[in-house]
């Protein structure tokens, strides 16, 4: 992406991007404002025209002149806005932040007007009541039902006063979540640094982390910093924090890093406490205006889980199984620490460290050693071979065929090898490396465009194929000749991200509102991702994705067995942590009254912790202040979705385990999963798609069996 001025102008309107690929390198930050405002003007004109047509009582309503027309109206602005939002995460600059802040009210206003169009909603209801309804496909019927419900959740039924208030709430929430909260976390993360000159303070820290810390020092102007001699500059980057907590023998440094990380964005000038309170109050008010008692009930209206009670039952059932097992796991850690001379009770900043020490003792595996087996290129090759074997697709590198936002970004195409002509069915970008000064921490997947028959461009492209971005934050190689080593957690994340995008490529949905991520119930969206992550623990897959950077050998069978065993190590503690976060989420969005002074956020956090934490949180823990999933993401009253999806994916993976060793049956099962779950999510209800694959309803037992937790 370029920042300098020139005579180029960002294209807008229908068909502006060839094959759905944004011209990332040609984008100028200053062009987004004029381009998006032009798209807004076009959308208003199209919307006015459609509403005028629908006001004609003699108009013959058809799927084409209602639903297809809406898809045409929504797409151009949505594409541009999504790209701007995405770029703010990977090439964050003041001008992009300012542009997004300046435009968001205008964008949300026109999108709200479309979502609240009474004329369009009446037309959709007329289609549902028409004689054509029985002749619509399953996808069309589902799409229409969800579109009408979405309009109701947008406030189409409200009077003018309440509708205006809902719109004000949505705009304020967007600002609070995606700007205030997210920027506070980002700025608080950047604000912390600690320069260390004595290497003994970093005893135990892996070389790969020391290299990052030395690079941080160089970036801050200490040009002489090296991996071996330092100095080393600490940051609150997720990978750095985790590495310090797991490996550093310096307990006081672990305590400091833990404290700074769990309390970040909880004090001025980046204080998210009042931001969270306002977000929760606005969500509660929005829910009540729309006819729901709580925001949790509103959130579940478009999810797979049938009720708050059903979600709480899953959370509590898993808690009851995991809590005593987690207590036993903590007791083992205490015994291990005591045997090594640790003579005080374990604190939260000790758990990751002693977990790593006990894991090394019992399984002789550690992050740094494993990373030597996972060069990025080898992992990618093995992942794509697995996708070919399971789903009959080929992933082709196409670097140079599309513009990218950074020289490190790669580009790939996905071909359906069992379809005549082996057509391209999806395309994706991979942004692999961390860039601390301009790229958001963590990893994620974002949609660029979704699959659509309506938005295809015949005859060359009768169906627009999905395009998505995979963002990682791997440690960049020190030299161009050095392979990029991945931690095993990085490997799991890459598998997860690829599967997330793969669903959008392999869907059989013909309409974007069914093929896009929002077309799938949020608590079912992770079923494919969790399934593919399970294959990281499949022996044959491990032989494909591992290759030692020195010897060239794959991971030995002995090390693989230890890795699988290590997955189950402290499994109850890990599952309990997820249930803890899910319980906090539901408590805040279903029981907490933001308007009452009787209970504070901290009291809610502490109350839930008493039931779910075998080791008390530290007194200054304010993890809610950086809990982006709830307050800057899409998981509000939905954090349980991870384990809800994991329950279904564990059941699906059990089917592959049952045919292990039978290559023909294994591949046939992969095609069956492709043609049911991957193809039908968004087209059918997730339970229907799952039952088509498994032949029965899902069982929760496989999740606990997968992690070795006894019931």
From TrEMBL:
Enzyme Commission code(s) on record: 3.4.24.70
Key words, A-Z: Hydrolase, Metal-binding, Metalloprotease, Protease, Zinc
UniProt catalytic activity: Hydrolysis of oligopeptides, with broad specificity. Gly or Ala commonly occur as P1 or P1' residues, but more distant residues are also important, as is shown by the fact that Z-Gly-Pro-Gly-|-Gly-Pro-Ala is cleaved, but not Z-(Gly)(5)
Keyword Zinc part of the UniProt annotation: yes
CDD domains in the cross-refs: M3A_DCP
Domain Oligopeptidase A N-terminal: 39-160
InterPro entries: M3A_DCP (IPR034005), MetalloPept_cat_dom_sf (IPR024079), Neurolysin/TOP_dom2 (IPR024077), OpdA_N (IPR045666), Pept_M3A_M3B (IPR045090), Pept_M3A_M3B_dom (IPR001567)
Entry protein name: oligopeptidase A
